[in-house]
Amino acid sequence: MTLRRTRAYAASGLVLAVCTLFVWENATAAHNCHAAATPGVNWHECDKKLLILEGQDLSGANLFGVDFTSTDLRNSNLLAANLEKATLVRASLADSTAKGARFDKIEAYRTDFNGTRCTISPAS
């Protein structure tokens, strides 16, 4: 009986270790601040200050809480991107496409939106 319990505990410990490793890998892969600017990138709460990202395709990207202070995003594709709570202070989104993008609760003083193509949906 003791040998069976030992094997059962060992098996359950192994399962727990594998599950913990799987969850940890998924959590760390969830957002990658070092990932390249690509469609659907997850930069959740990353620091992207003082960068030149002109002409990048960030369609469908998760940019929640990203700090884009003084970042050049001119001519970028932000189609359906989530910029909720992003910091866009002194950033330039001039001539970008942002249709369907979320700009809820952004901080954006002295931001250049000239020529930006976007649709504004009513607050829910």
Description:
The chain is mostly helical. The chain is elongated. The model is unreliable at 21-29 (pLDDT under 50). The protein is built from one helix and no strands.
Shape: elongated
Element order: H for helix, E for strand: H
Query: In angstroms, what separates the terminal alpha carbons?
Result: 61 Å
Low-confidence parts: 21-29
- Proportion of residues in extended strands: under 5%
Q: Would you count the extended β strands for me? A: 0
Radius of gyration: 21 Å
State the main characteristics.
single chain, 124 residues, mainly alpha, 23% helix, elongated
TL;DR of this structure?
The chain has one helix spanning 2-30. It is mostly helical.
Please render the helix and strand layout as text.
Layout: H1 2-30
